[in-house]
Every structure is written in C-alpha cells, then in structure tokens.
Amino acid sequence: FKLWGGRYSKATDHVLSKVNNSLTVDKRLYSEDIDGSIAYAKSLAEAGLLTQSEFKVIVYGLDAIRDEWSKGTIKLLPRDEDVHTVNERRLFEIIGPQIAGKLHTGRSRNEQVVVDMKLWMRNAIADLQRLLVELVGAINEAADRHIDVLMPGYTHMQRAQPVRFSHWLLSYAFYFKEDFDRFDEFGRRMNVLPLGSGALAGNPFNINRHKLAADLGFDGVSPNSMNVVSDRDFVVEFNFLCTLVAVHMSRLAEDLILYATKEYNFIELSEEYTTGSSLMPQKRNPDSLELIRGITGPVFGQHCAILMTLKGLPSTYNKDLQCDKSGMFAVYDQMQMCLVLIGGIIQTMRVDEDRCLSSLGYEMLATDMAYYLVRRGIPFREAHHISGEVVAHSEKVKIPINKLTLEDLQEISPHFDETISRIWNYENSVEQYTVVGGTSRLSVQEQIRVLRAFVEGHVPS
Which residues form the Fumarate lyase N-terminal domain (predicted)? Predict the structure, then answer.
C-alpha cells in the first residue's frame, strides 16, 4: 500500500525505503492525524464531496483505528512509510477502498503533517505550562517557608551583599513565570490552520477553511498555501522556548549544586534525588541536578539542528522537513522530565538557616557604609571611594571592618560619627531595600503574593 505509486514501475531501493521511513518517529502523532482526518472528512461532506452516510462510515473506521493504536493492537507493516500511510491503509482495510479512497480528496501529506504537529504541539505547550506553574508554586512555597533566612548574595561568584534566601529562590520563579508567558504568546500565534493548502497551490473543492479551523480549535487560517506547507518556524520557536526553559533550569541546578557542597552547605538535598559512589561510601552526589544541567546541551543542539535543516531550503515542501519531528519530541520529553524532577528537588531540600547566616561577613556591608555617607550628604562616588579606603585599611591591618574604631574611620574621613555602628546589622541591611523587587521582607512578601496569584490563576478548575 503506497500513497504515491501509480506512476512507478520499479520498487524503491531498500536503503532509501529505510531512510524514507519515518514511522518510528511520527507514529506518536496517530491521534492527531485521526483528528485532522475526521475534521477534513466533515469539511468534504459539507462541500458535497461526501454523503453523510459516507462521512459516518469514515468516522467509524477512523475511530476503530484510534482504538487499535491506543490498545497497541494495530499491525504495522514494513512498507508503511509513516503514520499517515498506516492510518489510510487501515481505513482501506476496515471500510473498503470505495469510501476510504475519498478521504484524501484535495489533501496532501505536506499540509496533513503540519496539522498533526500543531495539534500535538498545542497539547505539549499546555502540558509544559502546567509543569511550569507547578514549579513556580513549589519555589514560591519554599520561599515563603524560608522568608526570614538571610544569606550572602553573590556577583562574579564573590560574596556581595546580604539578601534573603527567599529573594534568591524567587529570582528563578520569575524566570519560569516568564517562560510560561512566552509559551502563552507563542501558542496563540502558532494556532493557525494549515489544512486546505494542498501540496502547495491550495484546495480546489471549495471547502470552508474557517469552519474547518473552528472544528479543530484553531484561531484562524493560514493566509498563503505555499508558505504554510514549508513553514517550520513554529518548531524552531518551540525548540527555542524549551531551550530557554532548559537554560533556566540549568542555572538553578548549578546554584543548588554549589549550595549543597560542604564548602557552602546552605542546603541538603534529599536522598531521593542524590546517588552514591561505587568507591567512596560517604558521597552524596547531586546527580539529578547534574543531569538537568547536562541535558541542556542536547536540547540546545536540537534547536540548532532544525535551524540548520531549514537554512538552505528552497520554497514549499522538501523532504528535508521530515527531520523536523525527532528533535521536537526529544526536547519536549526532556523538558517534561526535568521540570518534574527539579520541582521535587525544591520541595524536598532542607535549608540550613544557621549556616546561611554564619556565612555572612561584615565586609559585605561596605556598600551600606557608602549609603550611610550618602545619607549624610556625600555624593555617592565620593562615598564609594571612602568606603573602599576603609575596606583597604581593614585588610591591611587585618582587623574586621566592623571592629575598626571610630578614630580609625575618622582618620579616613571626618564624615563618620558614632552612628556608623548602626550599619553593622544584617537584618537592617536587607530591610532598607523596600523598593518593588527588593530583598526587604515586605518586598519579598509582595513577590510571593504576585506569584501565588499567578499559580492560583492557572490551576485547572
């Protein structure tokens, strides 16, 4: 059973048959392929190309095929090129060629596969968005539990300023919220019907594409048939969005890996998400996080691969486009697993509050010293310079900055007085950052409130 064999007298080369066969990849689209065929059959019936009786017989046959797929009883043959071939062959076998042969009237696999992929992608986006919401919720609840924990904030991997542990955690929650929003916008833009475009020139049988779009849940129809049969920008964008999610998870994983080391010891990962060593009994390795970080590489590779496939193609459909789905499925599968995994890690990790606090150092309040001087009327650049001189003097005489005497400070600048002692307080330091997005308690509570509203607004009813 071939969909295209009428003008051929020779059998296809056996190696080409293997290369040409995409069934191992695209059989995953069996249900979407059937959905598209049912909607198209309805459109043909409404255009007068099928009787209502024929339409019902086709739907019966397609439903039977879907049942075979779902039960795992469908028989796949070596000559089945792809999922479209399997479904059409089985339809011929179940209802006979006279009626089954009408289903493909005016339709090309060039458009059919794009419909299948978009229907699949719509569900994939919804699933990834659900997992992103769950991850944001897990991070947000962990931040709420640990809102009073103070820790060093880092820039350039050097201790910078005191911040709330929750403030650090929430920085990643907002990354994932933005990922959700990007999928939302992409999903709306992607949701345009390709069906009715034929191989490239369009459909000559006066089908109602707008009605067909509504039946399949699309928001509109593609405006140019030559464009849509070769368009894989939606795959590029899907792979990119998954890559961006992977990058965000990888960065979070890197932080967590560092913070779980004995050198930091801010957190302890649950045994559920670590593994041991075959040689060193004491080891608790963060394999879960390392794998999340490692998977980012192949995901990025799949994004590059589809771009390289597309970059030299002439217009409309080319067989190169058969290479579009394996990467799309791979990045989805990997993101699905990693989002679940990192959510579990966040929910089960233990935070060592005392260790976080004891890792702070008063030299991290040097910026607060500059702010102290600013509040006394000193221009910031001058205040910054004075504070830097104090740090240098502290390091030179090997006395902690908060232990320098008032006389020591006044030798550097006369603008210091006894009120300088008030800045040597970590809680006071974080509490001065009251702006929206800051690390004060009220600011962090507002961030938690915003994210909680986001999560509650996207929980399925």
Answer: 6-301
The answer on 186 and 273 residing in a single domain is yes
- Tell me which H or E stretch contains 267: strand 267-268
- Distance, CA of 257 to CA of 230 (rounded, Å): 43
Domain enclosing residue 178, as ranges: 110-199+223-358
Please list the active-site residues.
156, 277
Three-state secondary structure call for residue 327:
helix
Phi, psi at residue 351, to the nearest 5°? -100, 125
Q: Contact, 143 vs 173, CB < 8 A?
A: yes
Is 461 among the domain residues? no
Q: How far apart are CA 270 and CA 265, in angstroms?
A: 13
pLDDT by residue (tens digit) across 14-73? Answer: 787 788 788 999 999 999 999 999 999 999 999 999 999 999 999 999 999 999 999 999
Largest CA distance in the chain: 102
Same domain membership, residue 409 and residue 317: no
Question: How far are the Cα atoms of 165, 173, 423, 444 from residue 433, in angstroms, in the given order?
Answer: 14, 20, 14, 10
Within-domain flag for 204: no
> Could you tell me if 346 and 370 lie in one domain?
no
Residues 428 and 326 in one domain: no
Here the tokens at position 89 are: 């062959």
Specify the CATH number for the domain of residue 347.
1.20.200.10
**Per-residue pLDDT tens digits for 252-300:** 999 999 999 999 999 999 999 999 988 998 999 999 999 999 999 999 9
